[in-house]
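JOB MANIFEST
job_type = single_chain_structure
chain_count = 1
residues = 206
[input]
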Amino acid sequence: MDSIIFDVDGTLWDSTGIVADAWTDYLRETEHIDMTVTVEKLKSLFGRPLPVIAEQIFPDRGKEEQIRLIDGCCQAEHRALLKKCAPLYPDLEKTLKALAAEYPLYMVSNCQAGYIEVFLKSTGFDRYFSGHLCHGDTGADKPETISILMREHHLQSPVYVGDTMGDFLSCRKAGVPFVFASYGFGDVPEPDYRIEKPADLITLFL
């Protein structure tokens, strides 16, 4: 193993509460759409590419309108997350600091462009990470985005830490071992590795 790649939502932090409020407020106050976006709904959707989420949130709208609305929601969530950092999972910074002393750390997510940068600015964790890519940057699915990151940073044998079946299947396609963060949003019955909390990575890899 020469590096560790992390998912973001459900793996490093849980932004669903702040995001649900930001989306609901934006839709009501700016778009005049009487809709409540719930934490439960977001947890069921996070990890999918943004156009897929838009289709689920706004099924009665055309494709262009779905994208326009979800882009507005995302800008609202960025502002909200920069004002208030989302809850981090226990001992996350201690874990990242220990791991970064031994391995380069990266992030790959299906999120929109700019979201990882918001995470890094909100948490102040940019010093622990050597790079990142997302669906919004590449326009590619997660397996290909993982592969692009590996090529760009000359990674030979990374592991990926994520929390959903989509993450697991992406890793299988990309040929990368998968560490299941069981405290996150999804369920993966047969991962390569399983952790109950971020600090378990220290025991696993150091």
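[summary]
The chain has a mean pLDDT of 97.
The chain has two domains: 3-14+86-205, 16-83.
exit_status = 0
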